[in-house]
Amino acid sequence: MKEQQTLPVWLFQKEMNCPACGRQFMDSYPRYSRLRIDYVEPDLRPCYVSGINPFSYDVTVCFNCGYAMLTDCFTEMNEWQRERVRKTIMPKFHSRHYPMILTEEQAEEKYKLAHLSAQVMGLKDSEMGYLMLRTAWFYKTQPEPKEIQCNQEAGLNETVLKYYQNALPLLEKAYVTEKFPIRGMNELTLAYLIGVLHYRLQNYEETNKWLKVCYANREITKKENSRIFEKISALRKVWKNDAVARQTQAEAEELEHLEAEALSEK
User: Any residues with CB less than 8 A from the CB of 179 and at least 6 apart, and which?
Assistant: First the structure.
């Protein structure tokens, strides 16, 4: 008889119905009501108190057909996508059951299966881009500090940067082609996120461009945007330090002027 695994208090078992094949199965998921956010990292990844990392459990995989997706949108599937999964993934998938407590390798496999399903289903740009961002979150070996550090000090690994690179063009396209909110983000938040990803990839001119988009947004000084404004301002300052080092002082001063103008209109 298989030994029952004892789950930590922030994990729970839940019965899922697969929208592709109709089978029911049990899986383990983070109980986010039991997790307290300490702060939000520069790329909007939540950092939880006590160093808990729930991101290994954010993908659901059907044991029967192999359909996989981020759990919060696992059941969202139209008929065309259902047929694509049945014809493309299901015939090649070998049934497998994952334990309630995952190893790092098992969690990584789940994300890879989610990428496969996303490609087969032709997800819209925002959903595909968000999946790439969440995958970058998963591959972070340690949280970043709340206040953004320069690229030399951040120490992000190559896999994280690769998924930032994958996410960027998709999120940029979603910004101009899709309706807001996008994955819970308003225009200001997504513009900031795109800017910070460009910064991490050392695309400094693009960072400057997206910071200007942020400062041009009339919602920037509204009370509900105060936290994202703090992050925009922090990004501008770290970008300014890099800009001075790259001898582009004029660009740094222009952004400083734009921020001062935004604050004066409060």
Answer: none
- Taking CB atoms within 8 Å and a gap of at least 24, the contacts of 103-110 are 104/56, 107/56, 107/57, 107/59, 107/138, 108/138, 110/59, 110/60, 110/61, 110/68
* Contact call for residues 148 and 231 (beta carbons, < 8 A): yes
Evaluate whether 163 touches 135 at the Cβ level (below 8 Å).
yes
Helix (H, G, I), strand (E, B) or coil at 39: strand
pLDDT of residue 51: 86
**Per-residue CA distances from 220 to 64, 207, 225, 231 (Å):** 47, 17, 6, 11
139 closest CA partner among 238, 259, 255, 43: 43
Dihedral over alpha carbons 59, 112, 145, 244 (to 10 degrees) = -140
Instruction: Give CA 157 to chain center in angstroms.
Output: 16
Rounded average pLDDT per 10-residue block, the chain, 266 residues: 71 96 95 94 96 94 98 97 98 94 97 98 98 98 93 93 99 98 98 98 95 95 95 95 68 78 76
| Contact residues for 226 (Cβ-Cβ < 8 A; gap 6+) | none
